[in-house]
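FAQ: What does the model actually see?

It sees only this:
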Amino acid sequence: QVQLVESGGGLVQAGGSLRLSCTASGSVFSIYAMAWYRQAPGKQRDLVARIGSGGSTNYADSVKGRFTISRDNAKSTVYLQMNSLKPEDSAVYYCNRATIPLPWGQGTQVTVSS
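And it is asked to produce this:
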């Protein structure tokens, strides 16, 4: 059974950094574009960053220059390096395929204090 497991979230002060990881088990990983999403309380889930099967990347305007998405196909893992964090980055972060989504994982909470 396919499963997405996110980790790496936590509480950090504004200006700090976190590195999120997401491992996909039970599914072919390398051929799919992957993405990170985030959902703040009372808001919709928004796309944060996307990485294609070949490594091309796209970012939401709000995180450009601060976040970096990467992948390790051998480990079926996608990463999100988050630098210069702001309080408005606080949310639950999820990963999933960019298309043909899998069942969502539990996400990982990121809280940025001011």
